[in-house]
Amino acid sequence: MWPGSASRADAAPASFVHPGVTVSAAQLDYARTKVQAGAEPWKSAYNQMMASPYASLTRTPKPRATVECGSYSNPNYGCTDEREDAIAAYTDALAWYFTRDARYAQESIKLMDAWSATIRSHTNSNAPLQTGWAGSSWPKAAEIIKATYTGGWPNAGRFGTMLRDVYLPEIINGSNSNGNWELSMMEAAVGISVFLDDKADYDKAMGIFRTRAAAYVYLSSDGALPKTVPSQHLDTKAKIVSYWQGQSTFVDGLTQETCRDFVHTGYGISAISHIAETSRIQGNDLYGTDVGERLRQALGFQAKYELGTAPPSWLCNGSVNRGLGPITETGFNALHTRRGVAMTNTQTLTQNNRPAGSNNLFVAWETLTNAENPN
C-alpha cells in the first residue's frame, strides 16, 4: 500500500453509484421538485444558471490538442476555453435533468465529444492544476448524461479514454505545491475514477486526499504544529511556518493558505467538500470523521473574517485578503442540513451569497444542487 492509502472508511464501494460525482439523482430530484414548485432559493438559482452563457445551446467548443497553462495562466493557450467548456457541459447536463429538454443533453455531449476527439496533453507549469480544475467538471457532466440520458452517447467510450489517458496521469500522483493544487487534483481524480468504475485509482486518490486534507486545515488535536505531507519534508517549525505563509500561531480552522488569500483558500475548502460529498454518495460518509470536522472549522473560521470581522494582530499580521467565492453551499448543507450542526457564520455567509453561481474554474450552481437538500 502507498503512503496515505485509503482506509476501509473511505475505500471504493463494491459497485459505484451513478450519477455519483458531487451530486446524486436523489439530490437532483429534490432540487428539481423545488424549482417546479417555484420555491426559493432554488428557483432563483435555476434562473441564474439558465440565463448564464454556460447554458447556451449555441456554444462553440474550442478544443485544443495541447492546452498550455503557465503560472497564473500565463501563457493561456486553451486554459480558459477548456475550463469553461467543461463547466458548460456540466451546466447543460443539469439543464437537461431539470427540463428534460434533449437539446441540453445533446449540447453537453457536443462539448464533451469535441474535447475527447482533440485533446492529447496539458503542458507548462500550471498543467497539474489546470487538469484538476477541468477534470473536476468533466465527470460531473458525464455522470449525469451517461446515467440519465437515454438518447444515446456513441462516443462515451472515447470520452472515458480521454479521462484515463490525458487527465489521470497528470493528477493521480499528487503535487507538493500549495495545498489547493493537490486537493483540486484529487477531486478530479476521485470523480474520474467514479466515471471509469476504477476502484484502484479511487482508493489511491482518496488516500492522498486524506493526507492532504489533514495537512491543509489545522485542528488543535493535531498538536502544536500542523500535520504535514511526508513527501514535502517539512520537518522543522521554520519550514512549516514558511509553508503556512509566515503564520506561526495555529488555531482550529486556519488553513495552509489563509494568510495567502481567501480565494485560494476557498479552492481548497471547496475541493474538500466535493470529495466528501462524492464519498458520501458512494457509501462512505466522511463528514463524521476528521474530514468533516476540518471542513466545519475551516468554513466557520474563514466565514467569520469574510463577513468583515477585523483579524487580530496574530492572524496574517492583522490583515486578510478576502474573496472566498461561491464555495460554502456543499459543506454547509452536509454539516448543517443533514447532520444538524450549528454553523452561524457559515450560515450567514451562505445565505448572503445566494444564489451562488460559478467561480469559472470548477465550482458551479451549488445553491441549486445543494441548498437545504436532505438527500
Automatic annotation (TrEMBL):
<feature type="domain" description="Alginate lyase">
    <location>
        <begin position="85"/>
        <end position="305"/>
    </location>
</feature>
<dbReference type="Pfam" id="PF05426">
    <property type="entry name" value="Alginate_lyase"/>
</dbReference>
<dbReference type="InterPro" id="IPR008397">
    <property type="entry name" value="Alginate_lyase_dom"/>
</dbReference>
<dbReference type="GO" id="GO:0042597">
    <property type="term" value="C:periplasmic space"/>
</dbReference>
<dbReference type="InterPro" id="IPR008929">
    <property type="entry name" value="Chondroitin_lyas"/>
</dbReference>
<protein>
    <submittedName>
        <fullName>Alginate lyase</fullName>
    </submittedName>
</protein>
<dbReference type="GO" id="GO:0016829">
    <property type="term" value="F:lyase activity"/>
</dbReference>
<keyword id="KW-0456">Lyase</keyword>
<keyword id="KW-0732">Signal</keyword>
